[in-house]
Design a protein that fits this description.
This protein has a single domain, classed as Chorismate synthase AroC (Chorismate synthase, AroC fold). It is α+β, with helices and mostly antiparallel strands. The chain starts with a strand and ends with a helix. The chain is globular and about 70 Å long. The chain has eight helices and 18 strands. The strands form six sheets. Strands 1-2-3-7-4 form a five-stranded antiparallel sheet, with helices on one face. Strands 9-8-10-16-11 form a five-stranded antiparallel sheet. β17 and β18 form a beta hairpin.
């Protein structure tokens, strides 16, 4: 199983949803980067369950511990190991699915691949695996701050409710101003009401998380197979429940002509080149062009719902299954820090690769 990601800045996540804990090893972080437990914890608090009434009520503090690689608040340049211990596993909620495959989950696929699966909590296919990614992403953000890079994620769409967000001006304060994490406060209220109604029905909804990285200099990216958008796509599509990826105008650009879609160039008074528009999402030819990098990740509705559906047993006999336990009616609010983390991990890796290239 591939549980590692990155090239020069490389992470390896480990642990299962109902095991003793989950965590990550970060290898390749430069030395003397200021790293505080509080900053990592802040990111994990944005991801953790039980933070609001519209997410799963599993009671986990997600308290992180630094096991190695940091001394007196500074990275040593050696592997950084982080652990979060599981506290509120309720495996009894999963007794029925030991012999039944949950619709639209990874249960059947894992059985076919490995011949065994961690049926309680979903094992490695659980979103609890993303704790390691978010913790590592907090470190990646610290490194990127030295390059002047800022990353802000936000909920852009919940089911059929869409917000118009300006990636050039959106702020973290606006995103964190409500529990939906949509910076348009009026639209956020509509999203909140819809999610609560869906939760009462025992159903779920999906949507889109947008993310912008501002301050990325021109020149990051490794054509042809490690193009910046290719690595970003792989990173975001590796997140649980993510089923779609766009950069810049994405699929919407297919509705335009070349004249409408092209980003024209201009130079400022200091002769710095920039584009007049940003339909390319800050990436051209697989390389950053100095404009904000804008990506969108589509998340399907949470697969576990409190409604009876048709499925089969592990003996391939027809049966039905109704969801039990504690689950998110909409993954979007908790997915925001996950998306930010994966964007940060890609960008920091390419930042270090570019630095190594230029010497």
């Amino acid at each position: 199983m591939s549980s590692s990601f990155g090239s020069l800045f490389r992470i390896s996540t480990w642990g299962e949803s109902h095991g003793g804990g989950v965590g990550v090893v970060v290898d390749g972080c430069p030395p003397r980067v200021p790293i505080s437990l509080e900053e990592i914890q802040l990111e994990l608090d944005r991801r953790r369950p039980g933070q609001s009434r519209i997410v799963t009520q599993r009671k986990e503090s997600d308290t992180v511990e630094i096991m190695s690689g940091v001394l007196d608040g500074l990275s040593l340049g050696t592997p950084i190991a982080l652990i979060v211990r599981n506290e509120d596993q309720r495996s009894r909620d999963y007794d029925e699915i030991e012999h039944k495959y949950r619709p639209s989950h990874a249960d059947f696929a894992y059985d076919q691949k490995y011949g065994i699966r961690a049926w309680s909590g979903g094992g490695r296919s659980s979103a609890r695996e993303t704790i390691g990614r978010v913790a590592a992403g907090a470190i990646a953000k610290k490194v990127l701050s030295n390059f002047g890079v800022e990353i802000v994620g936000y909920v852009e769409k919940v089911h059929l409710i869409h917000a118009e967000i300006d990636p050039e001006t959106v702020s973290m304060a606006d995103v964190e101003a409500n529990i939906v994490r949509c910076p348009d406060q009026a639209v956020a209220e509509q999203m909140l009401a819809h999610i609560e109604e869906i939760r009462k029905q025992g159903n779920s909804v999906g949507g889109v998380v947008g993310c912008v990285a501002r301050g990325v200099p021109a020149g990051w990216g490794e054509p042809v197979f490690d193009k910046l958008e290719a690595d970003l796509g792989k990173a975001l599509l590796s997140l649980p429940a993510c089923k779609g990826f766009e950069v810049g105008g994405g699929f919407g650009m297919t509705d335009l002509t070349g004249f409408e879609a092209n980003d024209e160039f201009e130079a400022d008074e200091a002769k710095h080149v920039k584009t007049r528009t940003n339909r390319s999402g800050g990436i051209q030819g697989g390389i950053s062009n100095g404009m904000p990098i804008v990506v969108h990740a589509a998340f399907k509705p949470t697969a576990t719902i409190m409604m009876e559906q048709h499925t089969v047993t592990s003996e391939h006999e027809n049966t039905t299954l109704k969801g039990r336990g504690r689950h998110d009616p909409c993954v979007l609010p908790r997915a925001v820090p996950m998306v930010e983390a994966m964007v940060a991990l890609v960008l920091v890796d390419h930042a270090l690769r570019q630095r190594a290239l230029l010497g």
